[in-house]
Amino acid sequence: MLLIFCALVSTGALWGIETVAHSKHRLSVLLFLIWLFLFIVGNHEVADYGNYLIEYQRIDWSGIRLNYWAFDFIQCISKSLGLSFDGFRAIIYMIGLFFVGVFVRKTSGWSILFFFFYSIYPMMIDAAQMKNFIAMAIFSYAMTFLRGHSVNNYIKYMFYSFLAAGFHIAILIFFPLIIFKKLIHAKYFTRVFLLCIIATSLILSIGSFNESIKSVLIIFFSGELESKVDEVFSNTVRFGYLIYYVATFLAFLIIRWIHKSVKYIKNISEIQKDFIDNTYVCSIYAFSFFPFYMVWSEFSRFFRDLFLIFSAAVVIGIQICAPKFKYYAITDKQVKLFFSYLVLLFYLFYFGIYVYFDIIIYPLFNLNVWL
Question: Which of 50, 134, 256, 267 could bond 96 through an S-S bridge, CB–CB 3.0 to 4.6 Å?
Fold first, then answer.
């Protein structure tokens, strides 16, 4: 546990010095990112490590997959340079944490609080799922461009979202956000949207409908894709989807509270205000994942991919609730927001990570080369 102890003490001490000096916490954030990088790449026994290793050993330029083209491209480059799998893995997490750092700086500033939230959820599962982690990191950065009415910004959003989808195809689910952001202001759109989600979820809760949908989809897919469709519909959950239904409602209520608070705050930048607006749109868009949860629990990654964005929005919310001329004072709103979000994170940690203790948490803390 020496690495964890050193990370907490050194980061905490540096943060304290920067706080007393009334300076930005850039050094403590950068130091924590370094410790986080060492902690993640020092783990060689976490779930999926063996699968990624085999994949890396087999990959070549002729085997680049369309749905993971960016990930496979970096794999091939790494192999061409003679890097071991651990070297390649370090590069992936270095790129991912770089995008996380830039995202945090552009949204909530140099915030240790953001990384405290991230360490609870979903950091531990990100340490196991390389593809999803780097895709989520790049997509979160893409969200910083989804503001205003600038065509240039929208192009940047689509570019980085497309790049993120090259690491994990699941990011494609967020491509319609630009259209959704426009439609959400239309009269009755939200009501119609939610009614459609409820209706679809009810239909998918009936087993016979699932079989019919699977039969139709298999007609259009063949080979590996056909087996994937069969796998998805063969893993239909019973009541596990309720976990993410509750979490989605909680996230929506927290982000809505922040969104409403922004209207009455003057000491907030336009960039942060736009980001809060977009995060609120995402919290509503997350309801569209409900039917997916009915089919396969693995689709919960859609919701998880929003948590860098949610955490940054909560940090901004806590910042704007601070009294203007009392640097060390804490308001009731800050406390309520902090603990409300903490409840949500621990709820997801328990149901999304702790249930996989043996293959995620235990290897991270007990089979780590640094610990």
Answer: 134
Rounded CA gap, 296 and 303, in Å?
A: 13
Q: What does the angle CA 43 – CA 44 – CA 46 come to, to the nearest 5 degrees?
A: 80
Q: How far apart are CA 258 and CA 283, in angstroms?
A: 12
| Mean of per-residue pLDDT scores for the chain | 86
Tokens of 259: 């969104």
Q: How many other β-carbons are positioned within 10 Å of the β-carbon of residue 218?
A: 15
pLDDT > 80? residue 287: yes
The token pair at 219 is 């007609």
- For residue 178, CA distances in Å to 114, 149, 157, 278, 337 come to 26, 10, 9, 10, 28
CA dihedral (333, 335, 338, 342) positive or negative = negative
How many other C-beta atoms can be found within 10 angstroms of the C-beta atom of residue 19? 14
Least confident of 121-125, 259-263, 338-342: 259-263
pTM of the predicted model as reported, rounded to 2 decimal places = 0.90
Identify the pLDDT of residue 345.
Answer: 97
Residues 239-250: pLDDT tens digits? 678 889 999 999
Backbone phi, psi, residue 341, to 5°:
-70, -35
What gap in Å lies between CA 72 and CA 55, rounded to an integer?
9
What is the structure's pLDDT at 238? 57
Q: What residues contact 150, with CB distance under 8 A and at least 6 apart?
A: none
Give me the helices (H) in the chain, please.
2-20, 26-41, 49-58, 69-80, 85-107, 112-120, 123-126, 130-142, 151-165, 177-183, 189-204, 207-220, 224-234, 241-262, 270-285, 290-295, 301-304, 307-320, 332-352, 361-366
Higher pLDDT, 279 or 320: 279
Question: What letter represents residue 40's amino acid?
Answer: I
Tokens of 20: 């007393």
Let me know: does 207 contact 236? Beta carbons within 8 Å.
yes
pLDDT tens digits for range 182-239: 898 888 888 899 898 888 877 776 654 555 555 544 444 555 544 554 555 555 555 6
Radius of gyration of the chain (CA): 21
Rounded distance, CA 50 to CA 367, Å?
14
